[in-house]
Amino acid sequence: MALTGGSMALTASRRLLWIVARALFRMMFVLAFRVRVFGQLHVPRRGGVLIVSNHQSYLDPVLLSLGFERPVSFMARRTLFRNPAFGRLIAALNAFPVTLGGMDIAALREAVRRLQNGECLVVFPEGTRTSDGRIAPLRPGILAIAERANVPIVPAVIEGAFEAWPRGSMPRTGEISVLYGRAVRPEEHGRLSRAELVERLQSELSRLETELRKRTTCS
After folding, report:
1. CATH fold of 2-218, please?
2. What pTM, to 2 d.p., does this model score?
3. Which of 87, 127, 160, 184 is in the most buried spot, having the most CB atoms within 10 Å?
């Protein structure tokens, strides 16, 4: 039997696993990284929503799920599912595979399906983790998801995760913050071309990055 959490239908066992895992991650991340989250009220409590974020480290999918109660789905590169045990674990935590480096039609359809079912989905339109901590140009293809699903887009920025876990290094303790921006409603992004939407989100991520750095510097 399925239970509905927020707007997302989950089996009872998967919902319990999500609740337990999120509680453990919250405790671990607060202790190890002193995580702070701002602007989480911009994320709708129900209905399909696409969270568009910069990508600093392997920690990012978890970081973006800590600030609110509704479950989150996310794409994970297909190679992570090669280990059967790990693949089953992340699938149970709402991940689904995507092939990097091209247009994965099956993954895009699954993303649209989840959004149309009222789920919250996290994507990283830079395409890969940053190599220098800066926000790279966004790839327009993945934003077709929001257009086809006709859902709000919530921009989000992570700061400090790159320093906590740089590419090619082991994780270390540090301070990490997350900031969510105002949702871009379907009636807003529906009037924009793909290029205009990319430009708007790129600009908004840069603005949020500056705002988050000011907040963390002053506090």
Report:
1. Glycerol-3-phosphate (1)-acyltransferase (3.40.1130)
2. 0.89
3. 160
